[in-house]
Amino acid sequence: MIRITGLSVSYGAVQALRDVSFDAPSGSVTAVIGANGAGKTTLLRSISGMVRPVAGEIDLDGTRLLGKRTEDIARLGVGHVPEGRGVIEEFTVEENLRLGALHGKQRLQAGLADQFDLFPVLGQRRRQHAGTLSGGERQMLAMARALIARPSVLLLDEPSLGLAPIVTADLMRTIKELCHDRELTVILVEQDAMSALRVAERAVVLHVGRVAADDRSEVIAGDEKLRHYYLGMAE
Amino acid sequence: MDAFLTSRAVSDLLAGLVSGVVIGLVALSLVLIWRSTHILNFAQGAMAMFAAYVGMTQLSHRLDLGAFTLQLNYWWCLVIAILAGLAIGGVTERVLVRPLYGKPEINPIVVMVGFLATLEALAGAIWGTTTLSVPTPFSFVDWQLHGQPLALSPNDVFRIVATFVVAVLIAVLFRFTNIGLQLRASAVAPEVSRLLGVRVGRMLTLGWILASGVGAVAAVIQATSFSTGLTPSIMEAPFAIAFIAAAVGGLESPTGALVAGIAFGIMQQFVSDYLNSNYVLLIALGVLILVLMIRPQGLFSKRVVRRV
Amino acid sequence: MTPVFAVIDFRRAHPVLVRALLTLLFTCLALFLTYFFDPLTNYNLATGAAMAIVILGLSFLTGASGQVSLGNGAFMGIGAYAAAIWAVHHTTTPLVGTLALATLVGAAVGFLIGLPATRLRGPYLAGMTIAFALAFEPLVSIFSSWTNGDAPIQTPLLTPPGWLASLVHAPTSSLTTTNMWLADISIVVTGVAFFFMANLFRSRTGRAMRLVRENEVAAELAGVSLPRARVVAFMVSAAFAGLGGGLTTLVQGSVQSSTFNLGLSITILSLLVIGGIGTLSGALLGGLIFAYSQNWITWIEGKTGISSTSNLGGNLKGIIFGLALILVMLLAPLGIAGSIRFVILRQFKKHPLTRPSQSSTPQ
Q1: Is C113 on the interface with B (CB under 8 A)?
Q2: pLDDT for A117-176, tens place per residue?
Q3: What is the pLDDT of residues C233-287, one digit of tens each?
């Protein structure tokens, strides 16, 4: 489980996060939703150690993550699929996966078999350069690359970005299954609040860097005021 | 056939190949550093020279290792030079280059130029500026083809073979090993690599270490001929041409740099023979300007230079 | 405090006039001092002044437009040779004419080199200028019919005017008179050069350059032609280098291609960095250091017992300059003058009325 307490992050004079606290339990998907600029990406970057907070604590099953370097946090089992996927275009699909498996907990061949099982398309395209993949395929590659290391935590930053609704729905279903099968702690940051709420058990709503709501997703989805003010959604 | 092989043109081609492999190695090492840290190491030649000195000055010394004594011959000195190169590369990256990440572009340029001047002066101070002759491990006498000299000697072949061995080793390292994968990843996508657990900082240092090792080999090879020996300024000219070759080849491509370096070496030979050695640098400069005006990213590079 | 503000207001209203007055003041002061200096000091002053001009040129290129060039030693050599060749064949041309020629030739070559330079970024440009610096000596050899090849060209010595001789109560041929004359000329030329640069730096052209350096995209959007700005920067720095080179020839009375090697370009860069990029006083400081560096090294050798003919002694200059370049860049990238200025300005900024105006960047 990931426990966040009193997290505050500033970029110079701009405060991106103020006193954010919530728990993301393992074996479940926690959605982090809110308007653009609410601080969702900053939150994930803080967990991964890419951004230094000015205050607060981030714990992974009791281990303090704050102050550790990004690569060390990754080696502790935190898989982060960044905004834009971060697929290395010059590498082949297989090389991308190899890179992900290097510091993971399973052997390469087993890991590859695993991921090709999950995402057959990747198996078909294993020798292709990642730059030739479509948006949806890149998302799968980025996730497979994170998963091949057998992480205990999965941070997903806007996986639905630029993807068709059908692809997104597929993706979300896969995320949910993985989460339950492997007891993962999944923190799902999404612009598309509805699809996130459908797959997540809990949801945290961020508004201008603060936690506006932290509850079960049905409650959040049902609250019209919330949906209107914080998520900018109509009926 | 014999007449062809001993003809002037072929002789120049062979001689150019022999001198070009050094240029190619230096160009290769420049690209290795550029790809990993986006710095053009102006001190590359000087660092290589220094490593070569450390190695080659140990010639004929005896190393007492308790159980037996080791007579240091050329091969051992080459090893020492390579080790010195590795060390110099690593130390330079940590001490001089690390503090400069994120600073304006001019800073590393100036620091490396200063390093170049310091190393050359330091080498002169420690070992003197008179040429240190380096005995060749193989005969430097050209082979004869039915009485006519072929512009190739066993030593020449050694130089060419050594270069290709190094190039192949580097290529194998990068393409087929996990370390190579991490090195490449750290160069093109450092943030993503970190998210995957790669110790990017160490990879950058490793890039410098490897590049300097390659450079050391180049400097030793350059000094290993009967006509030249080791001097502090020995790598000045090869570096200038190697830089031009690397830039022409496109700083992203190690193979391109190696090939361009050899090509320039051949050009150098032809120009020196048919014209005048004074024209070499001018022609190289001209080629550089021409290529970069037509194709600013270099001949072999796949990346496109951002133009506003 | 009112007079201070009056001065500041005046300064803002008539900048060129103020600069002219300041230049005149410093120049006259320096000229006055040459009367009292011994011949050796005057000679050092002359060489230092020439070098200061070259450094100033590089300062403009690097400080104003952010490009690194290691070719200014070669530009200096070009100016030096232009002056030498002309002076040898046309002994009646006045001093000003010869120097003007050196400057123009420098500018012309700067234009030629600047053209391809517009296409190159940072390290590529620096590398190209290194190649240019290394190509200088071969170039001189190729044109040996004009340049005497590797051998030096002796130029006719400058004879001081009669009135100066009577001023110092010494014959015109004496070292006292000659060196004082050399120093005086150099000071005047330097004054003119610095005055020109001070105005250029503040002018529209200068501000455009600095915009290019800070943010190319913004500059282009503001209508600045990037290639044109870069070529102009090159031309200006080459012109200054040529002028410095021409002056050096006249002061030393001879010119030789081996002087203008890559080492010289590196020395110029070192002096610029140590003095302070982008500052006028930094360039002057650099020139001074250049003039006295040999003295200081000899002093160091004396104190530490290092022989000047030993391996260490012969290379001490290189080691010191190289290390200075590294250390200054790592620890105090603003250089001596730049750092001092930074500290002073920080004090000024605290008092609202003495804050520098928005349109100009601090000198």
Answers
A1: no
A2: 888 889 999 899 999 999 889 999 999 999 999 999 999 999 888 888 888 888 888 888
A3: 889 999 999 999 999 998 888 888 888 988 899 889 989 999 988 788 888 899 9
| C161 reaches B (C-beta below 8 A) | no
- B159/B164 Cα distance (integer angstroms): 9
Q: Does C22 touch chain B (CB under 8 A)?
A: no
Chains that touch B (3 or more CB pairs under 8 A): A, C
Taking an 8 Å cut-off on Cβ atoms, the answer to whether B194 and A91 are in contact is no
Q: Collect all residues of chain C within an 8 Å Cβ-Cβ radius of residue B122.
A: 315, 319
Mutation site, C55, C112, C124, C304, interface B, largest B CB count within 10 A: C124
- Biggest CA pair distance of chain B: 67
Distance between CA atoms of residues C249 and C243, nearest Å: 10
Which amino acid belongs to residue C51?
A: M
Q: Please choose, from the candidates C118, C137, C138, the residue with its C-alpha nearest in 3D space to the C-alpha of residue C128.
A: C118
Residue B301 forms contact with A (CB below 8 Å): no
What are B51's two structure tokens? 């490593």
- The pTM of the full predicted model, rounded to 2 decimals, is 0.84
Q: Which residue has the tokens 């506003």?
A: B308
Q: Assign 3-class secondary structure to C281-346.
A: HHHHHHHHHHHHHHHHHHHHHHHHCCCCCCHHHHHHHHHHHHHHHHHHHHHCCCHHHHHHHHHHHH
Q: Which CATH superfamily is domain A1-77+153-235 in?
A: P-loop containing nucleotide triphosphate hydrolases (3.40.50.300)
> What is the predicted pLDDT for the residue at C359?
41
Half-sphere exposure of A164 (CA within 13 A, CB side): 5
Could you tell me the maximum CA-CA distance found in chain A, to the nearest angstrom? 50
Is the domain B11-294 a CATH 3.30.310 member? no
How many Cβ atoms sit within 10 Å of the Cβ of residue C132? 26
Neighbours of chain A (3+ CB pairs under 8 A): B
Question: What are the CA-CA distances from residue A65 to residues A11, A73, A77, A78 (Å)?
Answer: 20, 7, 11, 10
Beta bridge partners of A28: A185
Does an interface of 3+ CB pairs under 8 Å exist between A and C? no
Q: Do B199 and A86 touch (CB under 8 A)?
A: no
B197 vs A50, A88, A102: nearest CB:
A102
The whole-angstrom separation of Cα A160 and Cα A168 is 5
Say yes or no to pLDDT of B37 above 80: yes
Q: Do A102 and B200 touch (CB under 8 A)?
A: no
How much of chain B is helix, strand and coil, in % rounded to 5? Answer: 70, 5, 30
